[in-house]
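Predict the holo structure. Ligand: adenosine-5'-triphosphate.
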Amino acid sequence: MTPLLELNSLSCGYDNAVIVERLNFQLQSGEIACLLGPSGCGKTTVLRAIAGFNPVLAGTILQNGQTISTVGSALPPEQRSIGVVFQDYALFPHLSVYDNIAFGLQKHSGAAKRQAVAELLKLVELPDISARYPHELSGGQQQRVALARALAPKPNLLLMDEPFSNLDTDLRRQLALEVRAILKDQGIASIMVTHDQEEAFAISDKLGILAQGELQQWGSPSELYYQPVNPLVAGFVGKGELFDAECLNETSVRTELGTLEFAEPFGAQSGKRLSLFIRPADIRPSHDSGSVMATVEQKEFLGHSVVYHLLLPSGRRIESEIFEPLMFEVGSQVSLHVAAHRPIAFAR
Ligand SMILES: Nc1ncnc2c1ncn2[C@@H]1O[C@H](COP(=O)(O)OP(=O)(O)OP(=O)(O)O)[C@@H](O)[C@H]1O
């Protein structure tokens, strides 16, 4: 199937300053993707290149198999069937909600335009506010209007740059799920830029980790979580720490956490040195005998979980997060069990 969007060895940036290089990914029709990465890594720059606002410095962008950007030639943004929602909503302050949304419906006649705006307002669950102005709306309402305006011309692809970053945590989670439902309902593909890993996991079919000027990995959220290609990706999609490990056989290793046995083999020979990435949720304190003893230095009760700050015999401090009301006192000795079924191991 021809992808809706295809980036081939794309380099993009500003005035010949290359910000992102050798970018390759494909997006199928109706798929929702997120670009996640540290501040300044070039996420917005990539969106702007896809939208046609920035030139490409090498490589190509194809939409439905047609080249829309290559070095020295680019289809104008308005001919791309790509909608854009920016972080600051960018609503026109002097236009009502109705006129903001109708702005994207220049080709519609009066009655068709009124009907389309009404349908869009219903879609974003704001049926009664068409006469209001942007300053009379909450942040969440403004964001819904911005979404309705971007959806009005029925784009094939919607680009969203940190669309929920001005909203509080509960609202952004709720709106992210609503937006996902709307995009799926309308069959519109999307690429969203975010800093927020949980939001990216909640909304996306595909996730790309952009860092150090390159796309580190592109795949489903679970692929990135369970099979990260490098420690950078592993650290971006969830908390965790690297531990030096020496393979004792196919399934066991020696580490600062003691000798660990895993259910699945590492594919590495005895004596081989690896880095293991272990998440706090995979380290479980108990009173039974475990792989190593540790001292509880602090505990944080977070409601749904408890995070223990533990001191290992090696002097290293680590965290363990458990989701049951198991209580260990600060200052007590606990033994640790590492429970990762499938180890995340990197060659050293
Ligand atoms: N108009 C511009 N001209 C030159 N350099 C720019 C311009 N806009 C951004 N940059 C630079 O490009 C790099 C990437 O910026 P970009 O906004 O794409 O990052 P980002 O990953 O979206 O960051 P954030 O998460 O903080 O929004 C930064 O070093 C930035 O300073």
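The chain has two domains: 5-230, 241-347. The mean pLDDT is 90.
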